[in-house]
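Z., the sequence and structure:
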Amino acid sequence: MAAIITLDDNNSVHASNLGIAGALEQIGLAISDVDPRLARWLIDKSNRTGFSMEFDLRGLSDDLRAAFWLGVDRANEKFLDLGPDVGPS
């Protein structure tokens, strides 16, 4: 089971769909104060894993992409605070 996130520059991130689902959930939780609608959508998407999972950032508006990347930064900071043996995958 694989997941693909297509980034703004047409590069992509490939990982297990469970790993990506966990990342999308953490990103959603991290931006619930900034964009509650996008946060709910990301958390909902994270709970709908299947055989394959795709997410294309190019389909988001500039504001939504900015909120998404803010969530990535906040989620990374959360995991870095847990210590050297735990971090984002």
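The chain has a mean pLDDT of 84. Residues 77 and 83 are 11 Å apart (CA to CA).

Let me know what you think.
H.
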